[in-house]
Specification:
The protein contains 16 helices and 14 strands. The strands form 2 sheets. It has a 7-stranded mixed sheet with strand order 5-4-3-6-2-1-7, with helices on both faces. Strands 8-9-10-12-11-13-14 form a 7-stranded mixed sheet, with helices on both faces. The chain folds into 2 domains: 154 residues, DHBP synthase (Alpha-Beta Complex), CATH 3.90.870; 202 residues, GTP cyclohydrolase II (Rossmann fold). The protein has 371 residues and is α/β, with parallel strands linked by helices.
C-alpha cells in the first residue's frame, strides 16, 4: 500500500497519478486543482480525451439516477475547459443535460476512492492511456515523474488501516471538566490521520460497561465555539458526563465535517448560506449523508482493552458501527448542546434526514415558539 499513500499525497498536491487496471491504464487528475493548462497537459500525456467521474450523489442532483456508486461522463470539446468542469463537478448553477453517462471501470471507481481518502471533492478526470502514448507514459513512471498504483490497492485504501493503528504517545492532561485525564495519540498506518483517546479517571475503578463518547473533530465548533453547530458543547458536556459517571473514554476522531474534511465543510457552509441544508450541501459536493467510518474507533477500543460500553450519542449509526465491530453497547445516554437560532436548521436536518435522536430538543424549541 506504500504506493497508494504516495499517490494520495500527489493527488492532494494537484498532480495526476497513473492507475493500473487489467483492462487499461488510466491517468487520474483531481478536479478541484484543474486549470486549462493542466487539462491540456493531461490530454497530451494520455493521448485521449478524458471523462469526468462523478459520484451517484452528485449525479442525482444533475438529474441522473444510477444503480452504482459512480458513473463516467465522456467529454466533448464544449466541455473541455476547467470552468465548465468545475461547474459540473461541484457548482450550484445551471448545467447542461447530461448525455452518454457510462458505467465506471475499476480504475474510475478507484479514482474517486483516492479523492475521498485525500479529502478532496469526489470527482476526477480519468483519461485512458492510448496505445501510441503508452511508451512515453511508461518513461514518465520509470523516471519518477509519474506515480503508478494498482486499481485494486487504490480501491482498498480506506480499509488499509484495519488492525494496523499505531499507539504513538500519551500524557496526562488535566481538563476543566475532568482533572484526571490522559491523552493517548493513535496514528493510522498511512500517516494521514491521527486520533486521540481521552482516558478519564482510573480505569481500574471504571464500570464494567465503560462510558464512551465517539466525537468527530470539529475545528469551528470545538475550538472556536461556532454557533452553527453544537459540537463544542457536546464535547465538553461529554467529558463532564463521563467524569461524573466515574470515568471512561472519549475518542476524538479526525473526521471533520462528517468525514468530508475542513475544506469541503467550509464549501458546504457557503452553500448552506445560500439556502441548502447540511445534507443537500454535502450532496451537491458529491458526498453522501455521512462519510465517516468507525473501524478506527473499534481498533482504539481494542488497544484500550474495552469490549463493553455505555455510549453517549444521539446517532444510531454509531451504535450500529460499534456492534458490527464486536463492541457490546449496553446502554445509550443522550448528549445535547444548546439549541440556538444559528444551529436549529443544522440540528433539524440531522434529526429529520440523518435519523439523529434529537426529538426532545427540537420539540422543546417548537413548544417555545422557535422557527
Amino acid at each position: 500500500m506504500h504506493q497508494v499513500e504516495r499517490a494520495i499525497f500527489d493527488i492532494r498536491r494537484g498532480l495526476p497519478v497513473l492507475v493500473r487496471d487489467d483492462e487499461q491504464d488510466v491517468l487520474v487528475q483531481p478536479i478541484e486543482s484543474l486549470d486549462d493548462g493542466i487539462l491540456e497537459h493531461l490530454i497530451a500525456t494520455a493521448g485521449d480525451a478524458p471523462g469526468l467521474v462523478l459520484s451517484r450523489h452528485r449525479l442525482a442532483l444533475l438529474g441522473e439516477s444510477i444503480n452504482g456508486e459512480s458513473a463516467r461522463l465522456p467529454l466533448d470539446s464544449a466541455m473541455l475547459n476547467a470552468e465548465r468542469l468545475h461547474e459540473l463537478a461541484f457548482g450550484v448553477g445551471p448545467t447542461v443535460v447530461l448525455q452518454n453517462i457510462v458505467p465506471t471501470t475499476r480504475a474510475d471507481h478507484a479514482a474517486l476512492t483516492l479523492m475521498r481518502r485525500a479529502l478532496l471533492i469526489p470527482a476526477a478526470l480519468t483519461a485512458r492511456v492510448a496505445d501510441e502514448s503508452r511508451q512515453s507514459v511508461e518513461a514518465l513512471v520509470a523516471r519518477g515523474e509519474l506515480l503508478a498504483v494498482a486499481a485494486d490497492d487504490a480501491e482498498r485504501c480506506f480499509d488499509a488501516a484495519g488492525g494496523l493503528l499505531k499507539r504513538v504517545s500519551e500524557a496526562h492532561i488535566p481538563l476543566a471538566e475532568a482533572i484526571d485525564s490522559r491523552f493517548i495519540l493513535f496514528r493510522e498506518p498511512d500517516g494521514l490521520r491521527e486520533h486521540v483517546a481521552i482516558v478519564i479517571g482510573d480505569s481500574s475503578a471504571w464500570q464494567d460497561a465503560v462510558p464512551l463518547r465517539l466525537h468527530s473533530a470539529c475545528l469551528t465548533g470545538d475550538l472556536f465555539a461556532s454557533l452553527r453547530c453544537d459540537c463544542g458543547e457536546q464535547l465538553r458536556n461529554a467529558v463532564a458526563d463521563i467524569d461524573a459517571m466515574g470515568g471512561g473514554v472519549l475518542l476524538y476522531l479526525a473526521q471533520e465535517g462528517r468525514g468530508i474534511g475542513l475544506a469541503n465543510k467550509l464549501r458546504a457552509y457557503a452553500m448552506q448560506d445560500d439556502g441548502l441544508d447540511t445534507v443537500d450541501a454535502d450532496q451537491h459536493l458529491g458526498f453522501g449523508e455521512d462519510e465517516r467510518r468507525y473501524g478506527v474507533a473499534v481498533d482504539m477500543l481494542a488497544s484500550l482493552d474495552i469490549q463493553r460500553v455505555q455510549l453517549l450519542t444521539n446517532n444510531p449509526i454509531k451504535i450500529a458501527a460499534l456492534i458490527e465491530g464486536g463492541i457490546e453497547v449496553t446502554d445509550r445516554q443522550a448528549l445535547y448542546g444548546r439549541l440556538t437560532e444559528q444551529n436549529y436548521r443544522y440540528l433539524n436536518a440531522k434529526a429529520k434526514r440523518g435519523g439523529h435522536m434529537l426529538d426532545a430538543v427540537l420539540e422543546n424549541h417548537e413548544r417555545l415558539g422557535g422557527k
